[in-house]
# Entry
Amino acid sequence: MRREVEQPVPHGPAVGIDVGIARFATLSDGTFVAPLNSFKKHEQRLAKYQRRMSRKTKFSNNWKKAKARVQRIHARIANARNDFLNKTSTTISQNHAFVCIEDLRIGSMSKSSAGTSELPGKKVARKSGLNKAILDQGWFEFRRQLEYKTAWRGGFTVAVPAAYTSQTCPSRGHVAKDNRKTQTLFACIACQYENNADHVGAINVLERGQRLFACGGTALSGHPAKQEPNEATQAVLV
Ligand SMILES: [Zn+2]
# Structure
């Protein structure tokens, strides 16, 4: 007799997720996942063997050896990242039936700093460094995994427009640029509410996601949707 695959019933409270560089993911319950930085960790070794490879005569035995080394490092980076993303998304989908995540436009973020390459100097280097960090985080893949894992368990993932989530006071809803004191500190200028800035972002993402879900209904259901939230659903939040 064939055994049916049992679909675990999702449980746990709804959660909002703020994604970032200093913390890979901060949850609205205040917990967070530190970044893996898989690429950065292996970057120097990779550069070393890439240099070595470039110094060898092409297609010589030593060149082939160096090339194999470079490929192994690439594979190791990819494995570590996949493992990290899978574990993180599995844990969250097991503990939360309703997941709201920041809708980062990663594509446009990468493009916009590529456009500044005409400008010489440190700014460009910093930006391309940031880009590398952005791509290294695997946020898009993380969201994709959350979408299908929560859906498989019968839960939902909602992508929430991220505008002003870091500047809005979760206590009374005051929106001000000055609420965000530093990269890590949120302190409301109107009501003295204070918290970690990423935690505030996650609380706001959850609150918005719940509102979107209440308004948008099935258009935002947890089926692994390829679509971004459409303009109509975003307009609700303006
Ligand atoms: Zn406030």
